[in-house]
Amino acid sequence: MQMLQHTRVDVLKLDIEGHEHRVIAHLAEFGWPSVPGQIYIEAHTMPGFPDYEEEHVSRLIATLERAGLRLFSAERPPAMCGESCVQLSFIHGNWHPETRSYEAA
After folding, report:
1. Cα separations (Å) of 105 from 27, 28, 32, 33, 67?
2. How many other CB atoms are found less than 10 A from the CB of residue 52?
3. What's the count of helices (H) and strands (E) in the chain, helices before strands?
4. What is the pLDDT at residue 90?
5. How far is it, in rounded angstroms, from Cα 59 to Cα 90?
6. Given this model, what pLDDT does residue 91 score?
7. How far is C-alpha 1 from the geometric centre of its chain's CA atoms?
8. Is 26 strand, coil or helix?
9. What is the pLDDT along the chain (105 residues), one digit of tens a residue?
């Protein structure tokens, strides 16, 4: 972001095969460069990803909510990932297309 002189992220999509839990935990611990206006995450869980159980998804949701994001959609499409993932969509409580940056809550 700095190299390209971007100051905000409007939409962030994370589908990184189980690493989303660590990435969000890292951002929560060390700070967000810019909290996105919207986030779409494919969160991976057991049985396909044995390191992550349903409690990890709950923790991920709570972490994003502390950053000012609100969950507005959660679905588990069987054709896409069976029992091993859930698709989560979040929107920042203050999101507006013309807004230039969002503060963590």
Report:
1. 13, 11, 11, 14, 5
2. 21
3. 3, 4
4. 94
5. 14
6. 92
7. 18
8. helix
9. 778 887 777 888 988 887 888 888 888 888 887 788 899 998 877 666 666 677 778 888 999 999 999 999 988 877 767 677 788 999 998 877 666 666 665
Q: Which sign does the torsion angle of CA 44, 48, 54, 56 carry?
A: negative
Say which residues have a Cβ less than 8 Å from residue 67's Cβ, sequence separation at least 6.
27, 28, 32, 35, 104, 105
- The DSSP secondary structure of 50-80, one letter per residue, reads TT--HHHHHHHHHHHHHTTEEEEEEE--HHH
- CA–CA dist 40, 36 (Å, integer): 10
Instruction: Give the pLDDT confidence score for residue 65 in this predicted structure.
Output: 93
Q: 58, exposed or middle or buried, with CB in 10 Å at 0-12, 13-18, 19+? A: exposed
